[in-house]
Amino acid sequence: MARPADPHARAALIAAARAEFVKKGLRGARIEDITAACGLSKGAFYLHAASKEALFGEVVAEFTSAMNLLIERRINDMERFHAEHGPLEARDVAERSERYELLVEMSTEGDLGTLELMWAYRDVVHVLMRGSQGTEFESLMWGMVDLEVSRVSQEFQRLQKDCVSRADVPPTVIGSLIVGTYVLLAQQMSQMEQKPDLAAWARSIHRLIREGSLPPKAATAPRRPSEPKKTAPKKTSSRGPQARAVSRPRSTSRS
Question: Which keywords has UniProt assigned to this entry (predicted)?
Answer without folding.
Answer: DNA-binding, Transcription, Transcription regulation
